[in-house]
User: What shape does this take?
Amino acid sequence: VTRTGEPAVIAVDLGGTRLRAALVAGGRVVRRREQATQPAHGAGAWIEAMAALVEDWRGQAGALGIATTGVIRDGRWFALNPEVLPVPAGFALVTELECRLGLPVQATNDGHAAAWGEFRHGSGQGSGSCICLTISTGIGGGIVMDGRLQRGGAGLAGSLGHVLADPAGPRCGCGKVGCLEAIASGGALEVMAREGGYPTPVRAGPAWAERLLDRSAQAVARALCDLRALIDPEIVVLGGGLGLSNGFIERVRRGLESHPRIFRPRLEKAALGGDAGLIGAADLALAA
Ligand SMILES: [Zn+2]
Assistant: This one.
């Protein structure tokens, strides 16, 4: 419990590249730790790594919120793109963590958690509806409408990485062809750079890198206009390592200029930066 009387919550963000943990109170990260994710080690090892990372915070927290890639349905975990993290279908994520840590656990898709974090404590504050697009190794999304996080019938709502960006595009790790994630994500840029014989990570500057980054930003801009037509959110929040990288949001704004004004959304950077998922997961665990 913090000085303000608000209980602290442990938040964990398990992605395909990094495992991050934080102690969160009052919508702010008060302590943090991180290490590399070991995707090949399997779900049992991921549980152990998470538990070890937060072990000494257990006495200070009333609950644990986990944000992770894939679909969460009734506490069970399924992969959407197994190339990001090979999640065993139906893994009992909540039960496993609760047994290991002795704390109540709330699990949320990482794109959902980031959208909720930005809506509650970041750039979406004060809006009635907010969509968050997290562009990093993969692409996550989350929709808050009328003040409520939209999970959908099967936990799939807001999976914006898997909307169609280009029917002639490459096959996505989810099995569909031409998904936004397969064209515009950081992971997709790395694949395309390697295929072209260029060095990675992709950084702005050389003509080939500018082409890849513009292609990504234009695909994102098209998807945002489709979202405006579909949902018409008051604000779209852009986050993630690539989304927040230098100049990327300006590229997307330039991409939007080629579309009719009425479909261009109000676009802002994630105010919580890389912490949106942690803070959202903590908030959802507190409310559960
Ligand atoms: Zn896909």
